[in-house]
Please model this.
Amino acid sequence: MDKISNIAKGNFVRYNGELCVVLEYEHRTPGNLRAFYQVKMRNLKSGRLIEQRFRPDDEIEIVRVQFKEQQFLYFEGNHVVCMDTETFEQIHLSGEAIGDSLVFLKEGMLIKVYFDGDEPVFAELPISVDLEVSYTEPGMKGDTATRTLKAATLETGAEVKVPLFINIGDKIKIDTRTGDYVERAK
Model:
């Protein structure tokens, strides 16, 4: 067991017997009250968000997980099928383990899959991905002066906001953590 002050964003912890990943972690000292740690976690089995307040002397179990790069193959219901690029072994991973960035998954993409023993528990996409715009309203040449955005549908079916000059067929870079447009892909 470790002190709560030893955890950080991205750590895996066992809270109430369930494996969780730490999403946000903040130390607060409100006025003349005692200091506390505000921790936001996601339960990896249920996908539920947990917000918990801890005292500085509270303890929590930090779980050491291993990760491997896997290649995304296809969707099977609400599961994702990935393959180890070295052993060609396939694994099934629940869609909740990937979270909101699931809509940016493209066939053949390499993702990090975290394992607790032999069980896959969490997956992480690359920070940015290049995807093709499959539908958007026509853009106008020279329309770059304002930061006005329009809706666009990507090849994976995800909808994002893009600048007015983006057209159908353009490749764009998307930040998978936020779902925001970054730039045109080169």
Remarks:
- The mean pLDDT is 88.
- The radius of gyration is 20 Å.
- The CA atoms of residues 11 and 22 lie 5 Å apart.
- The chain has no helices and 16 strands.
